[in-house]
Amino acid sequence: MYTNREELTGNAASFHSGSWYSLSLNNSQGVRIASVDVLFPSGVLATGSGRATMMVSVWHEDGTHLDSFDLTLSSPFAGTSLDAWLLPQSGGDSMQITNWGTKTVIHFVNLDFYGVGTVGYDLLLQLFPYPLPSNYQLNLDASILLHETNGFVVRHSYAAQLSEEYTVSPNWNITLSRVGIQ
Asked: Is 56 in contact with 38 (CB distance < 8 Å)?
C-alpha cells in the first residue's frame, strides 16, 4: 500500500454563525475533509467569576479517522494567564491537559475509537486577571492528523496546523480577530 501525505488548506472565509466559529480544511482538490469548530455559548464568556465554557470539535469526512488533535490556548501578554479543565460530560480518557501560566496545552493522547466520528470536548476556561482591565487576547493553535480508512492501493493521510486569535473585551464579549493556516 502506498501512503500519500497531504497538508490541508483552510477556506479563507471561515464560517461564523452566532457564537460558532468554524474553519473548513480542504484537500488539494478543494474538497472539505475536516473542520475545526469552536463555540463560546452566547458569545459572552463570563460566568461572573472570570470562567467561561468553550466547546471545541473536529468534524471529518466519512471514510477518514482522526489520529490526533492537539490544542494550545495562550495569551501573549505579560500579567495574564489562563487555565483550562475538561468538563465532566465530555468524558473520555484520551487527553492530557497541562497548564503553564500563559499557555494551556491539551494533547489528545490516543483517539482510538473516538477518532471514527466527530470529536468534541467541553472545556472550562479561567482567564486571569479578573476582572479584565482591558482587551484580552486569547490564541487558539491546533494541529490535527487524520487518514483515509478505505484506501486500497493509495491511502491518503492529512495534516493541518491552524491558529485563531480571539479578543475578549472587559465586558466579556468575544470576537474572532484573526484566522490562519500553516
From this structure: yes
CA separation for the pair 85, 83 (Å, rounded): 7
> What phi and psi, each to the nearest 5 degrees, are found at residue 26?
-115, 150
Instruction: Answer whether 60's CB lies under 8 Å from 34's CB.
Output: yes
In the chain, how many domains are there? 1
User: Are the C-beta atoms of residues 14 and 36 closer than 8 Å to each other?
Assistant: no
Task: Write out the three cell numbers for 77.
Answer: 501578554
CATH number at residue 52: 2.60.40
Q: Parallel, antiparallel, or unpaired for β 51-60 and 20-26? A: unpaired
| Residue that has been written with the C-alpha cell 495534516 in this structure | 159
Distance in angstroms (rounded) separating the CA atoms of residues 142 and 111: 15
Average pLDDT per consecutive 10 residues, the chain (182 residues; last block may be shorter)? 77 58 87 88 60 86 88 86 73 70 78 74 83 87 89 78 88 81 76
The residue range of the domain holding 104 is 2-181
